[in-house]
Amino acid sequence: MKFVDEAPIGVRAGKGGGGCLSFRREKYIPRGGPDGGDGGDGGSVILEADADLNTLVDYRFQRNFQAQNGEPGKGRNRAGRKGEDLILKVPVGTTVINADNDEVLGDLTTAGQQLKVAQGGFHGLGNTRFKSSTNRAPRQTSPGSEGDVLSLRLELKLLADVGLLGLPNAGKSTLIRAVSAATPKVADYPFTTLVPNLGVVQLGPYRSFVMADVPGLIEGASSGAGLGIRFLKHLTRTRLLLHLVDLLPADGSDPVQNTLSIHRELDNFSHTLARRDRWLVLNKVDLLSDQEVAAIRQSLLDALQWTGPVYQISALSGAGTNQLCEDIHAYLEHSKQREIEDPELLHQERAVQAQMQLEARQQIEKLRNERHATQGIVDDLNDDDDDDDDDDDEQMEVIYRP
Ligand SMILES: Nc1nc2c(ncn2[C@@H]2O[C@H](COP(=O)(O)OP(=O)(O)OP(=O)(O)O)[C@@H](O)[C@H]2O)c(=O)[nH]1
Ligand SMILES: [Mg+2]
User: Fold this and answer.
1) Ligand 2 center to 260 CA (angstroms)
2) CA–CA separation, 88 vs 59, rounded Å?
3) Same structural domain, 85 and 197
């Protein structure tokens, strides 16, 4: 299954059926009067969030959708049949945007949630409706109105509580393998992960959260380098970011400079996202002595003027990962609890998420326009060929541990 997180589609609601012009014609009943029935309403187009879907891949093949037209009215005062609504299933986490004016029409965040995107046309009236004391044989009817026609952009953002951020090879996939049942590929070359992966971290009964592994960011990503920033938007729904720092990069680069460059890329992408709660997670401690780890840690904290939480782990051996996951869970519970107690916080959170998504869209749009500098991301965004469907790397996994 290919991971597709953007899809442009066109929708057209059904036209209302026209009213009927007809007169009652029966033996022995002269001038039977008007009996033209009304048409039926056109069907609407409705999007529905479906928990069983996790990509927008279906919308790559068929892009235009039309709901049924209403049937015209008939004689003997029979109304036309209403057009069926067209229900399009999309994954939970899909944002629906009007492509013509960039207006966000809605966000489908819970399974079963529906959003009517195109209203069906209203039915036309049959000539019976125009009967009056002065006009007993009206020849007037009205046509049905047209249904709404819209160009939409569907955008899927994974629903995860925590997002992993870091350079390629930092060990993001290794960490998600260590703490969840997800099994993304791990290898000692950059860009092993090409699409986001989700893992459910289960700490005990009813104690779990979802972690998203987002493909590696590199210096210049916000101007299109590497995989660019196209996957960063998936972090806009997470509550907490974990910035994974490779303490001993295989290419000999400096962990401090690497960390600073990720900060810059994130900030270029979205100021608001860059100001979200973020924890530093120093990975691969198994490769260094305690003193070496302490030295790098200190220079990192100085360079970043970091005052937030810092963890030291080995994703490979699992050392430190339990404590990290327990703390993440406590953090998430705490923020949920506060929002329950003070609904104003929940509103603020929604506003911040909307702001991040807006900034993300603007940044991606900006890159689209600066084509010359961003061939990579433009290709990515317009990538329509489907030649790598069987590739393991393209799989998205959502695995729940029993
Ligand atoms: N020694 C050691 N090696 C690690 C640790 N974590 C990850 N690695 C190794 O680092 C390499 C990269 O790990 P990945 O998990 O694929 O890194 P990633 O961040 O997902 O990389 P991309 O998918 O390319 O963005 C692999 O060879 C891992 O075995 C660790 O804690 N200790
Ligand atoms: Mg990876």
Assistant:
1) 20
2) 10
3) no
Same domain, 239 and 275: yes
Q: Residues lining ligand 1, judged by CB closer than 6 Å? A: 166, 168-174, 186-188, 190-193, 215-216, 283-284, 286-287, 314-316
Q: How far does the centroid of ligand 2 lie from the alpha carbon of residue 150, in Å?
A: 38
Least distant ligand from the CA of 285: 1
State pLDDT tens for residues 311-327: 999 999 999 999 999 99
The Å distance, Cα 249 to ligand 2 centre, comes to: 15
For ligand 1, mutation pick of 177, 186, 219, 259 (most atoms within 8 Å of CB): 186
pTM: 0.73
pLDDT in tens, 82-125: 999 999 999 888 999 999 998 999 999 889 999 999 999 999 99
Q: Residue 276: which residues within 8 A CB-CB, separation 6 or more?
A: 238, 239, 240, 241, 352, 356
Strand boundaries in 214-277, DSSP class E:
240-246
In a domain, 394, yes or no: no
